[in-house]
Amino acid sequence: MIAKKTTIKAPEGLHARPAGELVKLAKSFPGTKTLISNGAREVSAASVLSILSLALKKGTEVEVKAEGPDEESAVNALAGFLDSLEG
């Protein structure tokens, strides 16, 4: 298992459209991918509704975790995607 922390930078936070894109990206990698909001709540990165339930706003710290054959690539891709959402 590999994990990486990032902070939501987009002024509007993580809303439905980018959450859907994140899910597509997460599903492109084998294994389990999860997001943890502020070190407390953990949800599947393969579910739009689960991601939206985190209500990720600008400034929220998120930990991306992956377990599986391409876990390092998955974590880097997902965290990179979240980092790219700067508005």
H/E series: EHEEHEH
CATH homologous superfamily placement: HPr-like
Largest sheet descriptor: 4 strands, antiparallel
Domains, number: 1
The count of helical stretches stands at 3
Return the CATH topology.
Answer: Histidine-containing Protein, Chain: A
**What separation lies between the terminal Cα atoms?**
30 Å
Instruction: Return residue spans where pLDDT drops below 50 for at least 5 consecutive residues.
Output: none
| CATH architecture tag | 2-Layer Sandwich
How would you describe the oligomerization state of the chains in this entry? single chain
Record field, number of beta strands? 4
Bulk shape: globular
Helix content bin: 25-40%
CATH class: Alpha Beta
Structural class: alpha+beta
**Strand content range:** 25-35%
Spatial order of the strands forming the largest sheet: 1-4-2-3
Estimate the mean pLDDT confidence.
Answer: 95
| Rg, alpha carbons | 11 Å
Would you kindly provide a written description of the structure presented here, covering whatever features stand out?
It contains 3 helices and 4 strands. The chain has helices at residues 16-27, 48-53, 71-84; strands at 2-7, 32-37, 41-44, 61-67. The model has no long low-confidence stretch (mean pLDDT 95). It is of the alpha+beta class and 87 residues long. A hairpin with a 3-residue loop joins strand 2 and strand 3 (41-44). It is globular. It has one domain: Histidine-containing Protein, Chain: A (2-Layer Sandwich), CATH 3.30.1340. Strands 1-4-2-3 form a 4-stranded antiparallel beta sheet, with helices on one face. The longest helix has 14 residues, at 71-84.
